[in-house]
Amino acid sequence: MKPYQSFGRIEPRKLGCTVLLGCLLVPVILIAVLKSNSQSFAILSFQLSIRTYLPLSTVEESNSSEQQGLGTTSLPLASLTDEHRENQSIEGEEITSLPPPFKEEQLKNNSNAGGITTVLNALKEDRGRDESIPDKETTALSLPSQGKQGGDKPDAGFEITRLPLKEKQGEKELAGVDIAKLPQNIHLKEKPGENSSMTDNVMESSHASNEKQEQNLIIAGNPIQQRKLICDYSGQRSDTCIMDGDVKVLGKSSTIILVSSSGPNTSPESTTWKIRPYARKWEAPLMALITEITLKSSADTKQTPHCAVNHSIPAVVFSTGGFLGNLFHDFIDVLIPLFITSRQYNGEVQFLATNFNSQWINKYQPILRHLSHYQVINMDTDERVHCFPYAHVGLKSHKVLGIDPSKTPNGYSMADFREFLRSCFSLKREVTKRINKQSRKKPRLLILLRKGSRSFINAREVIATARRVGYKVITAGPEETKDLHRFSQIVNSCDVMMGVHGAGLANMVFLPSNATLIQIIPWGQLTWACRHDYGEPAPDMGIRYLEYEIGEEESSLIAQYPRDHAVFKDPLSIHKQGFTAIWSVFLNKQKVKLDVHRFRRVLLGVFQSLKL
């Protein structure tokens, strides 16, 4: 018998086949394993308002439309073509078709909306120009150092711990979506379970798998289970600190002291942190104007001042400086964050404000009184030492005109915030109901009329067109909006609100659920920024959103620049010059002359959606 010329008595040809088969199987197995365990990264987007569009000091923020566990659907940024529209005809005219109104029972749950159809750019026409929008552009900028520790080293009685965060799973952007195939109704989820434990709150944020950046939690306390002071500098919108124990507030000196329990391992030396309690931390020039609060932890009770006023309730410290006075910023920078932070106490909480703005405090008394049963303390002038068992310094802020229920103590959502506003201002309408076609009742349309920049040149023509369509038209200028209590009731009485992009559209928070918001977007490739401010928050409020981007002929800029100017040919080149150029050209000097024949189709579509 001829001996085998191989190892292990295996023929060389069989051995070669085995090796080849193994080489083919290994990559297949690896691909399958990697695919099952892979995570997609969230597409980052600028956090901005139109007031700070593409600022130099912009911080990265996860897409604000992203909702954990919610299948939110939106159309791509490119304009819709005719095949992506559902066209209907009224008297031979093409109209914009909106999704049917949300079912009333779907709007009763207090959670964010999922499965939304957002109708965008429904009438934007292809004029052969570049319609691209830099929606995926991001800029990673380093934040200014925050001076988290004032001393050379922490006290012996305190431990500093940094807790890492994991990557956040992102959402894939949709492209080429057919509007007819998108979900048509809001499906609200049940409210998450309550979680009021301070330990649970901290550990949930520190170990959650759905965070993208490295967390910089500074925990003071020994051991960690007995933590007394927690400063979180990881938030993208705000820094916050929590002080639990013997808290002494020295208002006029902008200092807060936490007296720790003495022990054999404690040191009388203080450990110091700094914080500016305003929810716009990425804008360094603005934050420099916000009073800086010094937080100290000390075991030396003899060195701390005696209490002049003892409180048995928690304290919440925030600033009324910054951009306050602008309705949009009033809500996103303070009012919504204040609701997130303090609503859990049911009024038994004391507010302390730095950069005290008495006019702002008076304007929002209906809201502040419902959040706190006590008068706001002016930290700028109060020389007394106020003592508290617990204190929040800074306000939690999640996103523009929105709340992430998973990050709130009791699972509060924007539905809860809007219900809260209805109680503050005695707003009667919770839901907009469709009107029978046989009824003589007309849908109510509120038109916001700006003065100066971004105002309607042909306002009378727009109003007349809306009336001919069949609306009961209500108009409101700057004077009518000053009385917040009265104007909130006017907004709540309407079924549709429309206006050119600006702070006034933030009044959408007072609209009843199922109402429609129409945002007019000025010329200049501002679609993404405008949608970010009002289009993306709308679904969580149960509001249907429609945007109308004007064409060149509808802009007053045609009288200021030749048609071959970069303003028309290459708007993004203006963007690259910085925010000052954007503001000067596209925002501060532009007015709108709506093409009422083109815009009439939008009004007809919304009108039809409100009829049974």
TrEMBL record:
Involved pathway(s): Glycan metabolism
Name of one Pfam family that matches: Glyco_transf_61
Biased composition (Basic and acidic residues): 123-138
Keywords assigned: Glycoprotein, Glycosyltransferase, Transferase
Membrane-topology descriptor: Single-pass type II membrane protein
Protein name, UniProt field: Beta-1,2-xylosyltransferase XYXT1-like
Region called Disordered, residue ranges: 62-155, 189-210
Domain Glycosyltransferase 61 catalytic: 427-518
Molecular function GO labels: pentosyltransferase activity
Protein's UniProt keywords contain Coiled coil: no
Compartment list: Golgi apparatus membrane
Chief location bin: Golgi
Biased composition (Polar residues): 62-76, 108-120, 194-208
Cellular component, GO annotation: Golgi membrane
